[in-house]
């Protein structure tokens, strides 16, 4: 049994001694198994594993861990377990993002949504820890409902349990029971628990008058989530720190009105996020937010740095079915391609182009789209895989057919024209300096492939080979004649020398 298997088995059997032993011998709790899940993620999301979480943290795992593919933070995994000890062991460290959204839900939102009679007491304790460490009770979920609102509408839990939870929220100083759903939360509280003392009706203009920089930041984040442009603009006029985090938050929680407003300010949209270590364009792609991505790509100050590999990132996500509302990776993919701001033949560290990845994921839509935007068929990876070799003959033939177009005139007209597009066959200029590539790479690869060999007779390929031959035929004939004359002179010289 290897170390990773020992680590997984020890977690399943709740054997902390063997778990610690495997870690000390070099097992990696962040390594993913065949299902793409790491031991650290399993420990966080499985109730009763707090000791294993502590061992993972001692071995180098981070309380700020983020699954980059899912954009799911450690705290989101912890609340999946509904084990307050899991939540507590993370929140004891500084800087844990207690309001990080996964699938449009903060940890508090997720707990409130999954609340049931069976898990009520565990959920209550998790909420207690989150509120204690500063989680906002005012952030609405994808249905514009705050955690308190969901608790009030839950008919499964006992009334006494519900009242205990409600008191947890009402004890939070900045609880807002008036802004969301036109004050429905206050109305529910008055109907269900008329004996409770409720906070005074919130006066929005009064709330904006005072507060430290940190308080203003908290208010700003709250108003960003509410997509309240007017209040955000008032707060931003008094906020002197970097405003990029609010633009990022707009992308994540899809507050598009505030996003549009922020784009009109002096925010540097090319700056890399300190939290996510990505640009705002990459964050928009990660969350499938095509609205924000479109706005960013149209922005006159946008400067996409080289080697961001945006197309590579998107192709891996095209088949994902995210639970985020309005999340559309396909639309993001189209926007990036149509923007003309990315190199469709950009290679990653192992020389794979986006076309290589589209073939790897067997995504016909991506293959067609990339070919239509000029992807080079002869691109060769570090492992010598040539892109064209992985494309099905039917798809390739259909694309070659589309590369032959005619103008709108009748064939009988003398101005009737046939246009042939050889873009996918021509070596891109940025690859010409690479000695690994040569002009007829894709043609040679077709000839070497049994399934593609018949396409050498396609009009597009035949005319391309003919044109290439015409381009070099003069040079070929010149060298042939020069070689012939040289050989005649050499033979004559030899005969004269020995005669």
TrEMBL record:
GO cellular component, one term: transmembrane transporter complex
Transmembrane segments: 474-496
Residues in ANK repeats: 350-382
Keywords: ANK repeat, Coiled coil, Ion channel, Ion transport, Membrane, Repeat, Sensory transduction, Transmembrane, Transmembrane helix, Transport
Any single GO BP term: monoatomic ion transmembrane transport
InterPro entries reported in the protein's UniProt record: Ankyrin_rpt, Ankyrin_rpt-contain_sf, TRP_cation_channel
Gene3D superfamilies associated with the record: Ankyrin repeat-containing domain
GO molecular function, one term: transmembrane transporter activity
UniProt feature coiled coil, ranges: 222-249
Protein name: Uncharacterized protein, isoform A
Organism of derivation: Drosophila virilis (Fruit fly)
Gene: Dvir\GJ14071
């Amino acid at each position: 049994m290897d170390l990773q298997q020992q680590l997984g088995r020890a977690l399943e059997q709740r054997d902390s001694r063997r778990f610690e032993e495997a870690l000390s011998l070099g097992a990696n709790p962040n390594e993913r198994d065949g299902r793409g899940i790491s031991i650290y993620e399993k420990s966080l999301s499985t109730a009763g594993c707090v000791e294993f979480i502590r061992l993972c943290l001692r071995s180098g795992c981070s309380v700020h861990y983020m699954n980059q593919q899912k954009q799911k933070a450690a705290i989101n995994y912890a609340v999946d377990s509904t084990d307050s000890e899991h939540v507590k062991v993370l929140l004891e460290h500084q800087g844990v993002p207690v309001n990080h959204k996964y699938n449009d839900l903060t940890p508090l939102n997720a707990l409130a949504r999954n609340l049931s009679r069976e898990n009520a007491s565990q959920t209550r304790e998790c909420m207690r820890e989150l509120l204690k460490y500063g989680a906002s009770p005012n952030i609405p979920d994808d249905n514009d409902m705050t955690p308190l609102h969901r608790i009030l509408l839950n008919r499964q839990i006992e009334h006494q349990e519900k009242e205990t939870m409600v008191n947890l929220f009402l004890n939070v100083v900045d609880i807002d029971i008036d802004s969301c759903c036109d004050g429905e939360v206050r109305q529910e509280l008055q109907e269900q628990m008329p004996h409770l003392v409720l906070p005074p009706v919130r006066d929005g203009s009064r709330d904006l008058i005072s507060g430290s920089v940190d308080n203003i930041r908290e208010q700003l984040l709250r108003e960003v989530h509410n997509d309240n442009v007017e209040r955000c603009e008032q707060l931003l006029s008094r906020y002197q720190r970097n405003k990029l985090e609010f633009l990022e938050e707009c992308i994540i929680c899809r507050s598009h009105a505030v996003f549009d407003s922020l784009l009109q300010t002096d925010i540097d949209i090319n700056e890399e996020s300190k939290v996510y270590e990505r640009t705002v364009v990459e964050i928009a792609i990660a969350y499938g937010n095509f609205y924000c991505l479109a706005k960013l790509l149209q922005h006159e100050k946008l400067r996409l740095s080289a080697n961001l590999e945006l197309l590579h990132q998107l192709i891996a996500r095209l088949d994902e079915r995210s639970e985020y509302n309005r999340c559309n990776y396909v639309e993001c993919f189209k926007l990036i391609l149509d923007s003309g701001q990315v190199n469709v033949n950009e290679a990653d560290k192992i020389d794979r182009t986006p076309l290589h990845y589209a073939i790897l994921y067997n995504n016909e839509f991506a293959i067609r789209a990339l070919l239509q935007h000029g992807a080079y068929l002869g691109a060769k990876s570090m492992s010598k895989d040539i892109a064209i070799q992985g494309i099905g003959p039917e798809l390739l033939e259909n694309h070659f057919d589309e590369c032959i177009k005619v103008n709108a005139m009748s064939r009988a007209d003398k101005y009737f024209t046939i246009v042939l597009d050889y873009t996918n066959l021509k070596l891109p200029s940025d690859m010409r300096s690479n000695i690994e590539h040569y002009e007829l790479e894709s043609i040679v690869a077709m000839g070497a492939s049994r399934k593609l060999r018949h396409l050498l007779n396609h009009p597009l390929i035949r005319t391309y080979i003919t044109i290439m031959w015409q381009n070099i035929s003069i040079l070929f004939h010149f060298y042939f004649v020069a070689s012939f004359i040289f050989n005649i002179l050499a033979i004559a010289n030899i005969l004269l020398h020995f005669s």
